[in-house]
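testing teh design pipeline on a random one, pls ignore if ur not involved
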């Protein structure tokens, strides 16, 4: 068995020796010894990689970087196709509203088109477009970008980004919300989310001011509505041409429907439980009125829920037999999570009116808070506004609310596996994704997804492929379960590096079920008017926990082979012992 150093530097799953804790400079002597031990282990396991029928000699075959398995395009119906979009860099439009590096972008977009990518996603930053004053919109840089995207033949997912860029995981750019809004906040700090110690979060406006006319006579909801209507008016040619196919509506920090409970700029570190964000004067008043109406005027907001980096057991609220299990705790959590539902419902209703009749998908994103998912308290989810427990579904009410607006439920952390996280964090990304996608399908809405962190390895890609079609490809028709589309984070120089991009192109092909790129696939119907309002009682009926749909153990459209994964695990075992 002759193995060259070139063939073992990385496997076709993309795992580098450094990732395994093994620096390159030590490869020359130690690695050869390790590989010889690995070779003996493989032979002892009696694994047959390929067999010469005449001699019966077993030999190992070095895996190709883009080797794939799965059905061919001739045997698979188009219904198995999952479109793939690529998120653009956060600052593709600069803070001073300029589309820079157009030549570089054109080259990259052509590479994406040749790779079979369906389109791109990008943030349409409120802090850039409406920077010069209330109602003063400048869409020129985004129009230039859209023209280039349209010329290359890619589709567009546009995010109405009413939040700050910066302060969250993966943010390497700072774009604040408009300065004229921040100026209003200097005189009224309660327009921002606030934790128990009074720290304000200027990443976005608090949902508490959704209907408060504090912004030159407008409410926050009116601001969002005017912005989206202006976008439609100024981008009507791209909408009519079918270039813009998806409008994702920003509903909170990082554009997600949640409270900013775990902000790095305020000191949060993984896997801290985060903090409730409801201590501004408007939220305090609202809670006191709700508690009084319920006959408990003595109740106040939690004072025993700890701080950002506590673990559940260190707090009175989330610990064993904690406050969250009491009548008071349940009332608070229902109120806290319901405010988030109403916030999302109001803004999506305005978005539906703004884009009524346009051939676009309307979507909203919730984040995958997977740490402490396997703790009884689900503490990190609760502080973010997802009242999700082992016996209570915190996500199906969101899906039901979205169904009223013909919305798509976009979810994150599709690439993650439980084994990739420390045991003490009690993470459950696989079960979390399974739960959330299932409730979307049960509410008869489209579900879409993203990876949370940039990954270039086969393990991540295969996990995404599994979540995209949990029961595999159906050669005779539509798959039992299938995501509507995927957005990959994000376009970068590292992704476009030769090896990474070869693997990514294979991933795109597998998302397409080995079918050729189909520009006609993702063509939405005209957006209809939102259905009638859903009462809070009806939304809360959806909290009854049901079993998620079953998932296969692994995707049937995997990148690489079982041999490659075995090889990686074996090498990892030996390297970690060094």
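output:
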């Amino acid at each position: 068995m002759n193995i060259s150093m070139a063939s073992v530097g990385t496997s076709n799953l993309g795992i580098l020796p450094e990732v395994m804790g093994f620096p390159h400079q030590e490869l020359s002597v130690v690695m050869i010894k390790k590989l010889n031990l690995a070779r003996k282990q493989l032979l002892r396991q009696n694994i047959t990689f390929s067999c010469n029928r005449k001699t019966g000699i077993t030999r190992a075959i070095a895996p190709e970087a883009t080797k794939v398995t799965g059905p061919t395009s001739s045997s698979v119906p188009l219904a198995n196709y999952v479109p793939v979009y690529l998120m653009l860099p956060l600052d593709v439009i600069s803070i001073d509203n300029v589309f820079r590096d157009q030549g570089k972008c054109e080259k990259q977009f052509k590479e994406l088109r040749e790779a079979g990518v369906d389109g791109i996603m990008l943030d349409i930053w409120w802090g850039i477009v409406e920077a010069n004053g209330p109602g003063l919109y400048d869409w020129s840089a985004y129009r230039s970008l859209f023209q280039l995207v349209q010329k290359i033949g890619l589709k567009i997912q546009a995010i109405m980004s009413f939040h700050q860029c910066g302060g969250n995981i993966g943010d390497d750019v700072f774009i604040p919300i408009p300065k004229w809004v921040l100026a209003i906040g200097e005189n009224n700090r309660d327009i921002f989310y606030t934790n128990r110690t009074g720290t304000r979060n200027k990443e976005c406006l608090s949902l508490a001011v959704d209907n408060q006319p504090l912004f030159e006579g407008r409410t926050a909801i009116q601001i969002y509505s005017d912005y989206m209507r202006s976008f439609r008016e100024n981008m009507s040619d791209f909408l009519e041409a079918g270039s813009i196919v998806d409008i994702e509506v920003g509903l909170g920090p990082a554009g997600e429907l949640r409270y900013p409970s775990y902000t790095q700029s305020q000191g949060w570190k993984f896997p801290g439980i985060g903090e409730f964000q409801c201590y501004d004067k408007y939220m305090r008043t609202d809670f006191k009125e709700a508690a009084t109406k319920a006959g408990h005027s003595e109740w106040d907001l939690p004072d025993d829920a700890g701080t950002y980096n506590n673990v559940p057991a260190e707090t009175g609220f989330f610990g064993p037999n904690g406050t969250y299990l009491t009548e008071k705790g349940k009332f608070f959590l229902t109120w806290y999570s319901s405010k988030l539902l109403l916030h999302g419902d109001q803004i999506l209703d305005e978005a539906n009116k703004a884009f009524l009749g346009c051939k676009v998908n309307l979507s909203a994103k919730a984040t995958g808070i997977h740490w402490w998912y396997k703790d009884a308290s689900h503490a990190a989810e609760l502080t973010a506004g997802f009242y999700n427990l082992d016996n209570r579904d915190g996500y199906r009410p969101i899906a039901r609310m979205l169904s009223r607006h013909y919305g798509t439920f976009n979810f994150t952390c599709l690439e993650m596996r439980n084994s990739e996280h420390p045991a003490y964090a009690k993470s459950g990304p696989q079960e979390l994704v399974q739960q959330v996608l299932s409730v979307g399908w049960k509410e008869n809405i489209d579900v879409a997804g993203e990876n949370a962190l940039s990954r270039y390895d086969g393990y991540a890609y295969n996990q995404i492929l599994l979540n995209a079609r949990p029961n595999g490809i159906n050669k005779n028709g539509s798959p039992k379960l299938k995501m509507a589309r995927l957005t990959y984070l994000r376009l970068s120089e590292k992704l476009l590096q030769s090896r990474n991009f070869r693997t990514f192109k294979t991933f795109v092909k597998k998302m397409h079920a080995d079918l050729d790129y189909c520009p006609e696939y993702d063509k939405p119907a005209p957006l209809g008017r939102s259905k009638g309002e859903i009462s809070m009682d009806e939304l809360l009926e959806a909290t009854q926990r049901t079993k998620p749909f079953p998932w296969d153990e692994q995707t049937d459209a995997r990148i690489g082979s079982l041999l490659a994964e075995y090889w990686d695990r074996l090498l990892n075992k030996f390297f970690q012992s060094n």
